[in-house]
Every structure is written in structure tokens, then in C-alpha cells.
Design goal:
Length: 112
């Protein structure tokens, strides 16, 4: 018996892998490879998940090397914030009807 439905769209898996490892959204990747995001989810979700995990591991290795071996300040800060729970602290002073109120807030760094 013949299969019903549309013929599967050809997708360049090497391009798909490279785009996935850049941690782009499925919508952006689908646009780049010329398919619908549901196609990626249905046909490639397991591979894409594996590629993203591999990429995160490599990024972590580079970050670790930059932070500990080269003493790069940006890398040390990233490791401290992401893995050790550190945050930038902002101290502020507010005057309200002659009374000075001091408080400290943690500022999350969203640039990384």
C-alpha cells in the first residue's frame, strides 16, 4: 500500500546542526532551512536537543578556560553569577520627608 501525504521536505542536516548549536529559536532555524517550525519539532527534536546540549558543554568548557586559566574578568563574573549565585549589588539612598532610608538590591545582569 502506498503512503499517503506529502513527500518529506529535504532539509540540510549539517546546516540545521550548525544553526541549532548557535541556540537560535526553532522559528528562526525553520525560516533559514525553509520549513515550518512544526516540521523541526516532529522530525528533528531529539537531534536538536542533543546538538544544543553538546554546544552548551563546549561553551562551558571555553568559559571555564577563559575564567580560570586566562583570568578573564567577564568570564569570572559569568561563572560567579550563573554557577555560584553571585549578583551585582546596588546600594541606594532615598530621602522621604527628611528620613534617609538605605537599602541594597541585587541587580541581575541580563546581558549574558
Amino acid at each position: 500500500m502506498a503512503k499517503l501525504g506529502r513527500k518529506l521536505k529535504e532539509i540540510d542536516e549539517k546546516l540545521l546542526e550548525n544553526l541549532t548549536k548557535l541556540h537560535l529559536s526553532n522559528e528562526v532555524i525553520a525560516h533559514c532551512v525553509g520549513c515550518h517550525p512544526d516540521t523541526l519539532e516532529n522530525r528533528f527534536s531529539a537531534k536538536m536537543s542533543e546538538w544544543r546540549s553538546q554546544s552548551k558543554g563546549k561553551i562551558a568548557q571555553v568559559l571555564y578556560d577563559e575564567a580560570l586559566n586566562k583570568r578573564e574578568p567577564w568570564a569570572l563574573k559569568t561563572i560567579a553569577q550563573r554557577h555560584l549565585g553571585y549578583a551585582d549589588k546596588v546600594e541606594q539612598e532615598v530621602k522621604h520627608e527628611g528620613v534617609i532610608i538605605e537599602y541594597t538590591t541585587e541587580k541581575k545582569d541580563t546581558s549574558t
